[in-house]
Write a structure and sequence with these properties.
Layout (H helix, E strand, L loop, with lengths): L2 E10 L2 E10 L5 E5 L9 H11 L4 E5 L4 H10 L6 H17 L8 E6 L1 H12 L4 E7 L17 E6 L3 H13 L4 E6 L11 H17 L6
Parallel strand pairs: 3-4, 3-5, 5-6, 6-7, 7-8
Antiparallel strand pairs: 1-2, 2-4
Helix pairs in contact: 1-6, 3-4
């Protein structure tokens, strides 16, 4: 499937963030990735999921929610990666940026959040209900979304490893709290990082199918 990829600067909440935008021919929508604690757009797990989405075909934007200087501070303090409000504001800004770009404005938007990034994704979905069609959480912490959890209108898929018991419990509680119908899918034998053979492929398949269902028919280009 032909696709073009470009490194881009995303103006999000008044901060320039670095991102990689990939748009396959005939993309049915675009998924914005919110990375987890201490991760970046170079996360091999999210890169693998993004590659699987491109084959569907679905466009992706992987961005670093922290600037280079902030990353240096976070490596030492581990503080900013848990600043869910900051991450959510940046993600909302990225959604607004996508809707202002001629090449991405027509695409329906989905959010894929991992770990703490899932909480930021859910807050962003609650803040931009007219823009976000679907949310997928991989090993996420939806509980950290706080009151916004009950305000999410977008269909939501929570993917958790069977052996990630604490996070599984938190996701079950979040699903029961949400007003929108949220689905919980458990990957057999998987731990938090889905490092077991075939586990990440199952995550990509579940996420890809969920987004495809809610994006509708591909765009003709």
């Amino acid at each position: 499937m032909a696709a073009w990829t470009t490194a881009t600067r995303v103006d999000a909440a008044g901060v320039d963030l670095t991102g990689d935008l990939t748009v396959p021919a005939g993309a049915s929508g675009l998924v914005l990735f919110a990375h987890g604690s201490g991760s970046s757009r170079h996360s091999p797990r999210n890169q693998a999921v993004a590659a699987a989405l491109h084959r569907r075909p679905v466009a992706t934007l992987l961005i670093d929610l922290l600037t280079a200087d902030e990353e240096l501070v976070d490596v030492q303090t581990r503080r900013l990666r848990f600043d869910i409000g900051l991450l959510a504001d940046r993600l909302i800004g990225a959604i607004d940026w996508l809707r202002a770009q001629p090449e991405t404005q027509p695409q329906p938007v989905g959010l894929f959040g991992a770990s703490t990034g899932a909480a930021a994704a859910l807050i962003a979905a609650a803040a931009r209900p007219e823009a976000v069609r679907a949310v997928v959480s991989r090993g996420g912490r939806p509980d950290l979304a706080g009151p916004a959890l009950t305000e999410v209108e977008a269909p939501t898929l929570l993917i958790v490893g069977e052996r990630d018991q604490q996070v599984l419990d938190l996701n079950e509680q979040a699903r029961n709290t949400m007003s929108v119908a949220a689905e919980l899918r458990i990957i057999p034998g998987a731990t938090h990082l889905f490092e077991e053979p075939g586990a990440l492929e199952q995550v990509a398949e579940e996420a890809g199918g969920f987004f495809a269902d809610h994006f509708g028919r591909p765009t003709v280009t």
